[in-house]
Amino acid sequence: MCGRYYIDEDLGSEIGASVQDIDARMARNRAGDIYPSQTAPVICGKGGRLWGTEMKWGLAGRDKKLLINARAETALDRPTFSESVRKRRCIIPARHFYEWDGQKQKVVFSHGDQRALYMAGFFRMEEDGAHFIILTTAANDSVRPVHERMPLVLEAEELAPWIREEARTGEFLKKIPPGLEWSQEYEQMSLFL
């Protein structure tokens, strides 16, 4: 499950190579960790083109609890998500995302070559504007040793089809994300062997 990710100043220019229109709010260079309920850069469709804008992370659930992830395997079947997945798909760019291992140590997942990660998602309008959610899937071989779930990562050539081609939504929701590299800032040492 993706509960935090990182963006940097260079991400905006990298996104600009794939996106035709960028909202002025997204063009601001910013860097740092993105947490649920924060506003973050998102790519969506507008008039047949890819458009970069900002939205808040998380949808209000029935019990007012913030929903930040949805399972790709069941999103089309869940009334809370199905219409948005079909009609309002988006892409959440990041430099990397985090998961925590069994010892509660933070692990960073990235492409390793400083390419942007593009996480599949969807959005809906709420009282205070557009809110997005990140789709997760079963972890692939590169993430499974740390966590059982991971974001549904798209390749650069899949961005436009994910946004524009509703007929392929089911196919994308079943895809296995590309392999990622992982790192840790430090390794917790034990006094006992």
Topology:
Elements: E1 5-7, H1 11-16, E2 21-22, H2 24-27, E3 32-34, E4 39-46, E5 49-57, E6 59-60, E7 66-67, E8 69-71, H3 82-87, E9 89-94, E10 96-100, E11 106-110, E12 117-126, E13 129-138, E14 149-151, E15 153-154, H4 159-164, H5 169-173, E16 181-183
Parallel strand pairs: 2-5, 5-13, 8-13
Antiparallel strand pairs: 1-3, 1-10, 4-5, 6-7, 9-12, 10-11, 11-16, 12-13, 12-15, 13-14
What's this model, at a glance?
The chain has 193 residues and is mainly beta. It has helices at 11-16, 24-27, 82-87, 159-164, 169-173; strands at 5-7, 21-22, 32-34, 39-46, 49-57, 59-60, 66-67, 69-71, 89-94, 96-100, 106-110, 117-126, 129-138, 149-151, 153-154, 181-183.
What would you say this structure looks like, in words?
By secondary structure, the protein is mainly beta. The protein has one domain: Alpha-Beta Complex (hypothetical protein yedk fold). The chain is 14% helix and 39% strand. Strands 2, 4, 5, 8, 9, 12, 13, 14 and 15 form a nine-stranded mixed sheet that branches. A hairpin with a 2-residue loop joins strand 4 and strand 5. The longest helix is centred in the N-terminal third of the chain and has 6 residues. The mean pLDDT is 88.
Summarize this structure as a short list of keywords or feature phrases.
about 190 residues; mainly beta; hypothetical protein yedk fold; 9-stranded mixed β-sheet; 5 helices; globular
